[in-house]
Design a protein that fits this description.
Length: 430
């Protein structure tokens, strides 16, 4: 399908349900009883390992205490790969598991969602389910998603994101699968589990939340039931992200970001996303950089690009981020929203260009880490013409692009991408 066909108006709105959830301090202690209640006995725990913490070990021991017999797949990578999904499917089948528990952020939850879809279809390759509602069997294994970051909201949404490294190994492709059958059985959001999240990672995840809040608020889907939650989530980010970043054990800030994540996911679940996410998917497909970091770098550029078609909405986002817009018209207030986003990015210590990202300055990223030959070689972000062109082309095929409020073509989006790699943020507010 051509991009211009995807960009037609959306006259029919669709609400996508969200799962039952346990929210608040101490909720993670309920996963054993909840797993038993929904029929699990031998769950497969999927996680990145959360190295440097004891979170996974503690939760696995809690499951055992309640009489469950968990297997553990702890090799999920950032920007989860198709081989992560298929390796976990093989373990699930080999160990005779009867349900899934994902522990971590969006990578763990997304890989787990993909694994559930694959298991429900006799182990078919997860890449076969790219797109919208491509699964055929609605009877998936049960899934409890336990979040340890305030970022993706994957535990709440009908979307999961996988990097296809096998169809064309020389050109990895990061795609979004939207599937009502992938919605988890139970979401668990406990801000106490966020305490061990490092400051730089907290900041990056927080900008993922702001992208999730702002994109449905200005989306061309214009889904009325999402607008209030989107705006309120942005307000929570403006109020709590700085404190959560620099004061890891501040419970009100961590809880505020927990609700920001959960509320933003409700908003985009039916209200859609946009080019911030499309840029992020492309850059992480080629460089394995962190999704939230990519969103942070892209967000002020995409906001500035979209302003002419959504001044009133961005003016409200400025207010949500704490700007006093008294006496400003919508254009001035919308400009102030971009400035507020840049101020927040700088306050929480995030890189300002993709070419500023290195493994030393942003250790969560996997530049040159492998394990595939492609990612071993992708150790430095070049930001040259070839980089800008391939990212711009990847955007045109991304499932988030049609929701962007401004029409997206190669010619219109390429300057935005160029600025993300090499531009100065001060140019956006001068």
């Amino acid at each position: 399908m051509q991009v211009d066909e995807l960009l037609k108006p959306f006259p029919l709105k669709e609400f996508h349900p969200i799962p039952r959830a346990l929210l608040g301090p101490g909720s993670h202690e309920m996963i054993g009883p909840e797993a038993l209640k929904i029929g699990m006995r031998r769950p497969l725990v999927m996680t990145s390992g959360l190295r440097g913490t004891e979170i996974v070990n503690k939760l696995v021991e809690s499951l055992k205490y309640h009489g469950l017999e968990p297997s553990v797949y702890d090799k999920v990578e950032s920007n989860p790969k198709d081989y992560n999904v298929m390796d976990s499917v093989a373990m699930y089948q080999q160990d005779g598991c009867d349900g899934f528990i994902s522990i971590g952020g969006g990578s763990s939850h997304d890989a787990c969602k993909g694994a559930r879809i694959s298991v429900a279809h006799d182990g078919r390759n997860v890449n076969e389910f790219e797109g919208f509602n491509k699964s055929e069997n609605p009877k998936n294994p049960p899934h409890i998603a336990v979040s340890t970051t305030a970022g993706t909201g994957s535990e709440t949404s009908w979307a999961y994101v996988i990097t296809d490294t096998t169809t064309d190994p020389a050109n990895p492709h990061k795609y979004v699968a939207f599937d009502d059958h992938s919605v988890v059985t139970l979401a668990v959001d406990d801000p106490v589990l966020y305490y061990e999240c490092p400051s730089h990672f907290t900041a990056q995840c927080g900008f993922d939340v702001l992208a999730h809040a702002s994109e449905p608020y200005v989306s061309r889907l214009d889904f009325t039931p999402s607008l209030g939650s989107a705006l309120f989530s942005a307000e929570l980010v403006g109020e709590h992200l700085r404190t959560a970043t620099w004061h890891a054990d501040n419970l009100p800030a961590r809880e505020g970001m927990m609700y920001a994540q959960y509320t933003a996911a409700q908003a985009f679940n039916s209200g859609g996303l946009g080019v911030i996410h499309s840029i992020s998917h492309a850059v992480s497909a080629f460089y394995d950089t962190h999704h939230g970091l990519n969103n942070a770098i892209a967000l002020p550029r995409v906001w500035a690009w979209n302003l002419p078609v959504a001044y009133k909405r961005y003016a409200r986002l400025a207010e949500a981020l704490g700007v006093d817009t008294t006496g400003m018209n919508d254009v001035k207030a919308a400009d102030a929203a971009v400035a507020a986003a840049i101020r927040l990015l700088r306050d929480v210590g995030i890189a300002e260009r993709f070419t500023d990202i290195t493994q030393d300055t942003h250790p969560k990223n996997r530049l040159g880490a492998g394990p595939t030959e492609y990612y071993t070689k992708a150790s430095t972000i070049r930001g040259d013409k070839a980089d800008v062109d391939r990212v711009s082309n990847h955007i045109l095929g991304d499932a988030c692009t049609p929701g962007n409020p401004k029409e997206t073509t190669f010619e219109t989006v390429r300057p935005v991408v160029e600025h993300c790699f090499n531009g100065d943020l001060d140019d956006l507010v001068s």
